[in-house]
Amino acid sequence: MSERRRAIVTGAASGIGAATMLELARSGHDVAGIDINEAGVLLTAQAAHALGGKHLGLMADVADEPALTAAFKQACTFLGGLDALATCAGVADTTPFMDLDSETFRRVNDVNVIGTYLCLREAAKYMTPGGRMCTVASVAGLRGGGLMGTAAYAASKGAVLALTKNAARSLAAQGLAVNSIAPGPTLTPMIEQAWRDDALRARIESMSVQNRAATPQEIACSIAFLLSPMASNITGTTLVSDGGLVMV
Prior knowledge:
By secondary structure, this protein is an alpha/beta fold. The protein has a single domain (5-241), classed as NAD(P)-binding Rossmann-like Domain (Rossmann fold), CATH 3.40.50.720. It has helices spanning 15-26, 38-49, 65-79, 102-126, 139-143, 151-171, 198-205, 216-226, and strands spanning 5-10, 29-35, 55-59, 82-87, 127-136, 177-183, 238-241. The protein is globular. The termini are far apart.
C-alpha cells in the first residue's frame, strides 16, 4: 500500500474547502482542515474520518498571523509533514463601486490576499521537494468582477492570481509547485443568499456555455488534480473551472 500524502485545506468548514478536504481524504491524503468556524471544520474532519486515514480540524483566522502560524505548526506535527496545500478560505463582497469604503476593502483583502500569502509562506516551511500548493482565485479576478463580486473582491482575486505566479517562481528552487484555480459561480454558502434571486441566477448561469453553476465537488476535483503527482509539470498557472464562462 502506498504512503498517504499529507495536506492542509483552509476554509474547510463549508463550500469548496469542505469538499476539497473530503476529496483529498478520498484520494489518499491525511488532511488537516483550518477554518474560523470551529464547529464546521470539526464536522468536516469527522466526515473525512469515515473515508479512512487520519484527519484534524483546527480553528484559525487565516488573516491572523500568529494564530495561523500556530495552526500550521500543529497541523504539520499531527500529519508528520506536509505535501499539499489548498487555500480555500475567503470572503466575498458585493458592495457597489461607489459605496465601497476602505475598511471593507481592507477586510476583504486581509482574508483573500494576505491570508493566502501567509498560508503559502507557512506551507513552504514544512514542504519538501515535490510539495504542491493550490490557491483559490475566481473568474472575478480575470474579468474584473461583473457577476456578483465587485471591486474589493475582484481586486483581491486578481491579486491572488499574481501572488500565485510569484510564489511559483520563488519556491521553484525548493522543488515546490504552486498553481491556482479560478472557479466561476459555484453553489456554496457564499452565494446562497444572492442565488435566491431567480432572475440574477438565470442571468449569471446563462453566461456560461454549460448554462449552470458548478458544485463544490467539481471544483474540489480540479484542486485535487493540481495537488496530485499527475500535475507534476504544471506550476505557475491558473486552471479556469467555470463551465465556459470566460474562455481565456
